[in-house]
Every structure is written in structure tokens, then in C-alpha cells.
Design goal:
This protein has 3 helices and no strands. With 111 residues, the chain is mostly helical.
């Protein structure tokens, strides 16, 4: 349900306009909690990989192959973060009724 300010929190966006049931909200909140934990983990991994990349690039004799491999690790962490978001969206879509899915689709078309 709505938070203290009447909104639905960051990332909830249009879901607040879909007249979700309390059961749907409970499930959506659980999905967002799982997503937040995964993203915190991946954000830390991305920072770690970025620091390693920075160190490789600023070394006295930069090794292009090592830099390339480290860049791939950073991109892999970014991809995992994006996929976690897609997974959460799919789970949420699975909770919606046909009418709610249609309203969501129409809303996104205007964004």
C-alpha cells in the first residue's frame, strides 16, 4: 500500500495506478525486497570490479589483455544487475490480472 507520503516508494511507479489487491502488494513488496538485496550485492561487485579495472589501467605498464578481461567482468556484473530487474518485472507481471497487464502496457507506451 501507500507509504507515509501517499506514494508507493521508489520503483513502484505505475503499479500504484493498477488497483492492486493487498495480496498482490504483499507479493510485489517481497519481489522488490529480493531485487534490492540482489542489486546491493551486484552494486558492491561492480564497484570492486571497477576498482580493479582502474588499478590495471593506471599501472606503470598497462596490460591490454588483463584490462579487457577485467572490463568484461565489470560488464558481466552490470548484465546480471539488468537481468535481476527483468526477472523482477516478469514475476510482477505474473501477479497481474489481464486488465492490469493491459493498463500497464498502455501506460508504458506513453513513457
Amino acid at each position: 500500500g501507500p507509504g507515509a507520503m501517499g506514494g508507493y516508494g521508489p520503483g513502484y511507479g505505475v503499479l500504484g495506478q493498477l488497483n492492486l489487491t493487498s495480496d498482490q502488494w504483499n507479493k510485489v513488496n517481497a519481489i522488490y525486497q529480493q531485487l534490492a538485496k540482489k542489486q546491493w550485492e551486484l552494486n558492491g561487485k561492480m564497484r570492486e570490479e571497477a576498482f580493479k579495472l582502474r588499478d590495471l589501467m593506471s599501472s606503470e605498464k598497462p596490460d591490454r589483455n588483463a584490462i579487457d578481461q577485467q572490463y568484461k567482468k565489470l560488464q558481466d556484473a552490470r548484465r546480471q544487475r539488468f537481468e535481476a530487474r527483468l526477472d523482477a518485472q516478469e514475476k510482477i507481471n505474473g501477479l497481474l490480472t489481464g486488465e492490469q497487464k493491459e493498463r500497464l502496457r498502455r501506460f508504458r507506451a506513453w513513457q
